[in-house]
Amino acid sequence: MAGMEDESKNTGMAPATQLVHLGRDPKRFDGFVNTPVVRGSTVLSPTYDDLIHHRGRYSYGRRGNPTTEGLETALKALEGGDGVVLTPSGLSAVSIALLSVLGTGDHLLMVDTAYRPTRTVCDTVLKRLGVETTYYDPLIGAGIEGLIRDNTRAIFLEAPGSQSFEMQDVPAIAAVARAHDIVTLIDNTWATPLFFKPHSAGVDISIQAGTKYIGGHADLNLGTISAIGPAWKKVIATHGNLGITISPDDAALGARGLRTLGVRLAHHQRAALDMATWLQQRPEVSRVLHPALPSDPGHTIWKRDFRGASGLFSMILKPVPERALAAFFDTLTLFGMGYSWGGYESLAIPFDCRDYRTATTWEVEGPAVRLHIGLDDVDDLKADLCRAFAAMADAAT
Ligand SMILES: *Cc1c(COP(=O)(O)O)cnc(C)c1O
């Protein structure tokens, strides 16, 4: 078989080498380093016999082409699962994964700290289909067993938690689920498979918003679903039956992002930890929420299970009036104000989890701010924050 299908030769390599080599086969494409962008719906068969026996490597554009296959193959090797499907956004990866394993009358356990639109999938589409959702505390660990009902079919995790960065004991929850024959799914966007491998921790379905670090340049929406065992059969069937595809251009952007994912994440990790440590010393900051900080409540679990930390974390400021918070944000010039993250650019947004969480209470002493530390020079970013803190103090008085 061609190189793209045989990744076994790459599995013993370090992640940096894997990222360079996985999912491309220059020999097959006249020496071109990258897999070409193949546009196509119809795939012609050379003979009647090939047509009726489906002997071709590809059958129809919706079912995949060399460009999408290259990215899927690379991700499959990185995730270490039985296969990967691509979807047009991170949220569609979440919804398709959930629709793969849930049906009318089923019960879902969803972590209370999930990405907010993931909750909306549960509270609208799944609810309409007759799936009941119970939200659970991210710190529940093996205590999740107490929430399991006869009809519980799936447990969804996200670690660290969206915006507030609580760590979950993933192996403990996965072990309980396995003992009850319940499927586990995790949104692993923050860590990527470079820093956490969900399947090794016993999780059946691993989801990424490839929009974030895989894309890495704020120019792509992409979702990925990796799965193992019986869950993989369900995911590939549901994805195919629903007719989900992504464009070859987006697949090529995703593959290009993968090539630099390792060096980008190493920088994001170093810069964000440097910034988080610096912010801990700032008089304006009450607390920093970042699991790689030794003082963080989730640090022990993070250190046990994760190989690294990415560039996204939050801070709780000491109380200030809203006009002072507005002055802080309006003074930032290097940090942009905008949703999403994982690109080369640095970002800052305010957030308030009181608006939507139901299984936990969000009680904080001051305004909450989420930061993404991009590829800018860290000292320049600190200077930007210093100017914003000064403007905040001016506006407060
Ligand atoms: C952004 C994000 C998503 C959704 O990705 P989109 O491509 O915006 O749909 C899902 N989960 C997490 C944790 C995210 O940050």
What do these coordinates show?
One of its GO terms (molecular function) is cysteine-S-conjugate beta-lyase activity. The protein is an alpha/beta fold and 397 residues long. The chain folds into two domains: 14-259, 3-Layer(aba) Sandwich (Aspartate Aminotransferase, domain 2); 262-396, Aspartate Aminotransferase, domain 1 (Alpha-Beta Complex), CATH 3.90.1150.10. The protein has helices spanning 15-21, 48-52, 66-79, 90-101, 116-128, 170-179, 192-195, 229-242, 248-280, 299-305, 322-331, 378-396; strands at residues 83-87, 107-111, 132-136, 152-158, 183-187, 205-209, 223-227, 285-289, 312-317, 347-351, 368-372. The strands form two sheets. The chain has a seven-stranded mixed sheet, with helices on both faces. Strands 8-9-11-10 form a four-stranded antiparallel sheet, covered by helices on one side. α4 runs parallel beside α5. The model is unreliable at 1-8 (pLDDT under 50). The chain binds pyridoxal-5'-phosphate (PLP). Pyridoxal-5'-phosphate (PLP) is lined by residues 89-91, 115, 162, 187, 189, 209, 211-212, 221, 340. Pyridoxal-5'-phosphate binds at residues 89-91, 115, 162, 187, 189, 209, 211-212, 221, 340.
